[in-house]
Amino acid sequence: MSFQLSEVTLESEFDAIWPIHFKAFQDPYNTFSKFFNPIHTSLDEAVTSSKERHVRMWKANPACHWTKVVETKSENVVGATCWMLNVGAHAPNPNGTKKPFVADWHIEGSDERLFAEKLIGGLLGFVAERVARPHVVLSQMMVHPDYRRQGVGTMLIQWGIRKADELGVETVVEAVPYAAPVYEKTGFGRVEQIDIDFTIDNPSDTWKKYQSKTCPAHMSYLHYFNPLQLSTLKACAMVDPTAEAGSNRSGYILHSNDEITRLTLQHQIVKDALNNRLVLASINFSSGPRTILNSCTADGVWLRDLQASIGPQHTFIGTDVEASYFPTNPPSNTSYHAQDATKPWPKDWSGKFDLVHQRFAIAVEGSESDTRLLVQRLIDMVKPGGWIQLVDLQEWISDTDGPAWQDYCICLRDMINAKGWFEELGLVDVHEEIIEVNFGTRDDKNLEAIGKRSALLTKRQVLAAVKTLPPENITVPKERVSTLMEAIEEEFSKDPVNAHTHYKVVWARKPE
To answer: For the N-acetyltransferase domain, which residue ranges apply (predicted)?
Structure first.
């Protein structure tokens, strides 16, 4: 079975698209659908009314672009998307007066109309308040139930990604959690959860019913950083590692958008290597509310991903030395705090957490005694019977990798000196799992692009840091380190790219 994608250019093309629109959102039933496309009398009347409304919007807005996918043998439309090419920058207005959203396709004065205005206005306003730069945003996507899991959705998403690449802008998506995997597969990363305020004075029983059925389906705000051509990647200068917590000069490898990009891409690659497992510790999240700490959280991508997978009944706390990366307006069960992981933690956090998690930050200290102290402080915050999970590098080099990449991995190894601290510090049920992460050529070209960019964004700053180490602590000659930047770029410019790294996940339980 083959498919063909094209951009919609004629009004008549919507005749074949719109029945698919209703079919897609009814199977399985989407609790939001009645507010976007209500059925007041008959299905046929609803399809016609909704189609005419969207055609008018398409004609009136030059930024609105519809695409469709056709099954070539039957010539039937099997999927479609609406992309908004918002290429003009605007200033976000989080505190100003908002223009109310009007859902005039609903019956005037009805609870359904008011709820639709709250819902849709909240979603549209969320992105408008946060994305000031030019961007491409996915407004709608639908795939016929009979043609799902056949690559149709990926084709539709990649059209928008390519368009954003052509325009040199970012891509934004809003999605319910169960739809997130298709977006993550094409490179999107979670940025923030959308919690819409549906509270009104004296709500009716109908309103309460809408709220109870709709609110649990939290939206996730997804943000994709477009893969650049490898030859155009530019690294930023190292920032000051002595900066105070919360300042704009933290000890991050990169900073600002480049660092968030690197961390988001890295998260996707490592999550794929772990078969989408975020927690390997034996914690039953369904037995009751848990309190979870993610140290060195950056923008909270791991924390938000975990929240989407285990539910909102838990308490999530993220800490980082760089507070400027924290999401704005997190949900009520999530908080972010400026905290240097190498410094003492708040005293009232001692023995507080069911799970303490930290990833790729053990090397921040540079000496074994200081790193052991860092780990001890993390363990102190675990409650008796709770768990700690650390993810970091494993000493390993693949013989099949390129010589420049092998030397780069040796440099990474020289920055890590992790040993069996968990056993030494009295933890039990200690486990370790080694995962292999591929940063080079693979069958999944989307993950390949993510892995390559992740590696190239990281390598320049890691090598710059390695050059500052004493010669006796560096296995690779310093003159070789100076040439590795260009050598790795050369290796990555030629297929196949062989570049692998081993990470280890270590988790253990504090005795009761």
So the answer is: 70-216
Cα distance between residue 151 and residue 143, in whole Å: 10
**Residue range 163-183: average pLDDT?**
77
171 burial via Cβ count (<10 Å: 0-12, 13-18, 19+)? buried
pLDDT reported for residue 406: 60
Distance CA 149, CA 455 (A): 30
Separation of alpha carbons 83 and 87, rounded Å? 12
Contact (Cβ atoms closer than 8 angstroms) between residue 215 and residue 221 = no
Whole-Å CA distances, 288 to 217, 292, 312, 385: 20, 13, 11, 14
Within 10 angstroms of residue 4's Cβ, the number of other Cβ atoms is: 11
| Beta-carbon count within 10 A of 374 CB | 20
- 344-370 pLDDT, tens per residue? 999 999 999 999 999 877 654 445 677
Beta strands in 330-441 (DSSP E): 334-338, 353-359, 382-393, 428-438
Sign of CA dihedral 351, 352, 355, 360: negative
Reported pTM: 0.55
CA 353 to CA 423: how far, in whole Å? 20
The DSSP call for residue 42 is -
Predicted confidence (pLDDT) per residue in 200-218, tens digit:
888 899 888 887 766 544 4
Q: Which CATH homologous superfamily contains domain 230-509?
A: Vaccinia Virus protein VP39 (3.40.50.150)
What is the rounded (10 degree) CA torsion for 85, 87, 88, 91? 80
Residue 254: predicted pLDDT = 40
Alpha carbon distance 301, 258 (integer Å): 15
Domain ranges of the chain: 3-224, 230-509
Of the candidate CATH numbers 2.60.40.10, 3.40.630.30, 1.10.10.10, 3.40.50.1820, the domain formed by 3-224 belongs to 3.40.630.30
Of 178-192, 222-236, 250-264, the poorest mean pLDDT is in: 222-236
| Cα–Cα dist 232/493, whole Å | 11
